Amino acid sequence: MDLLLRSEEMILLAIWHLQDEAYGVPIRRYLSEATGREISLASVYVPLDRLTHRGLVQAIDAPPTKERGGRRKRHFKLTSSGISALSEVRSVHDKLWMGISKLSLR
Q: What confidence tens digit (pLDDT) does each residue in 8-17 have?
């Protein structure tokens, strides 16, 4: 079993939520809002590169636009392997949290 790192899991979930708007800046914004922490673009792109190489994410280059000075946006989409990896990590989380209704200091 090759479990995802927490950052990889969060990025895959962000891509799932963002769908057609899943590219660097919106992914970073989504994660920053979800965590309440400032997330750097490097914290997004480094795991995205790993996820792409592992076949969990597919990178799709959009056509260049004038608004971006002729640069392309690279969109990301979950592959079936990425969806399976998320399902697997959720199953592990559910097993680990089973029977724990509330955490408290003793």
A: 999 999 999 9
- Expressed in percent and rounded to 5, the helix, strand and coil fractions of the chain are 60, 10, 30
Give CA–CA dist 14/16, Å, rounded: 5
**C-beta neighbour count of 89 within 10 angstroms:** 19
Task: Judge whether 56 and 78 are in contact, CB under 8 Å.
Answer: yes
- Taking the C-alpha atoms of residue 48 and residue 38, their distance in angstroms, rounded to an integer, is 17
Query: Interhelix angle for 42-53 vs 24-35, to 10°?
Result: 110
Distance in angstroms (rounded) separating the CA atoms of residues 12 and 24? 12
Where are the domains positioned within the chain? 6-86
The answer for residues whose C-beta is within 8 angstroms of residue 34's C-beta and 6 or more apart is: 10, 14
pTM: 0.86
* Mean pLDDT, rounded, for 33-57: 96
CATH code of 6-86, in short, is: 1.10.10.10
